[in-house]
Design brief:
2 domains; about 290 residues; globular; alpha/beta; single chain; Rossmann fold; eight-stranded mixed beta sheet
Length: about 290
């Protein structure tokens, strides 16, 4: 199986490294403006130790799957290329709505989703710190996983990314979004690593945000595969030293994924009549930080 990967940020770099270590044939997809750094090699340290120059292509030609590891808000600009490439894609973004958008544009049979609790951060020198292990789940946009998706799961497993197949991707995506709603904006606004949310006022804020997200999911009749707060605590423990992606984005002056995470939860809460005051406050605060930095 030949796997292409677009988006060598923190998570994308970890996935590429682990897949190569597991024996997969991995190529990186990048335009000319991004190839210079990648030609110097992909470096990951921490829970994964890796340094290698991987093959580069401008399109995923000859590949069985394309792992999309870009930010959620970047995908709309990629749709025309994705349609042209005509390759099965796996959405690896935080947040909600990405898989549905891709399924509508590319056809549900060509789309899968991947969620994980692995924690990673990009360093100023371009390398990536793999700061915490975590769970991983993959599933088809619609229906049960096919043989090709099972082969991709096997490739993840071979690379020590222990991955579970699911036939309820929506439930997994909502669970991850609710957990992210409890961790990411709280940690980002406080400027602390994930582990700092395990106690005190930050713990109460994170727990309240998780409970609000779970209430919205219940009102939407979405079955969650685990308790969001317990899952959040597990991730805080496993990635205690990691700076979440939202904190990294704010620090670098980049746009965050707050709209795809908290924004979607708040919007759905309004539609189904579930109050989300803590989430709304977090959403306003992150939006303010994005426009002021």
């Amino acid at each position: 199986m030949r796997i292409a990967l677009l988006g060598t940020g923190a998570l994308g770099s970890v996935l590429a490294a682990r897949l190569v270590q597991g024996g997969s044939d991995v190529v990186l997809v990048a335009d000319d403006s991004r190839t210079e750094r990648l030609r110097r090699g992909l470096q990951v340290n921490g829970f994964t130790e890796f340094f290698e120059v991987l093959p580069l292509q401008t399109a995923p030609d000859g590949c069985d799957w394309l792992l999309l590891c870009t930010k959620a808000w970047q995908l709309e600009s990629l749709l025309s290329r994705l349609k042209k490439w005509d390759v099965a894609v796996v959405a690896c973004q935080n947040g909600l709505g990405v898989v549905d958008m891709l399924a509508k544009q590319l056809g549900a049979k060509n789309v899968a989703g991947f969620v994980t609790g692995h924690g990673a951060a990009r360093r100023t020198d371009g390398s990536v710190l793999h700061a915490g292990e975590g769970y991983a789940v993959i599933g088809a946009a619609v229906g049960t996983p096919n043989s090709s998706l099972r082969q991709l799961r096997d490739a993840f497993d071979a690379g020590r990314i222990d991955t579970t197949l699911t036939s309820d991707l929506q439930g997994e995506l909502w669970l991850k979004a609710i957990v992210n709603n409890g961790i990411n904006p709280v940690a980002a606004l406080a400027g602390v690593p994930n582990g700092a949310l395990r106690e005190g006022a930050l713990r109460k804020q994170a727990q309240a945000a998780c409970h609000e997200g779970a209430a919205v999911a219940t009102a939407l009749e979405i079955t969650l595969p685990d308790d969001p707060w317990q899952r959040a605590l597990e991730i805080m423990e496993r990635t205690a030293e990691n700076h979440c992606s939202m904190l990294q984005d704010l620090g670098a002056g980049r746009r965050t994924e707050i709209e795809a995470i908290t924004g979607v939860i708040v919007t759905n809460g309004h539609e189904v009549g579930v109050a989300t005051p803590v989430s709304e406050a977090l959403l306003r605060a992150i939006r303010k930080r994005e426009t002021s930095d």
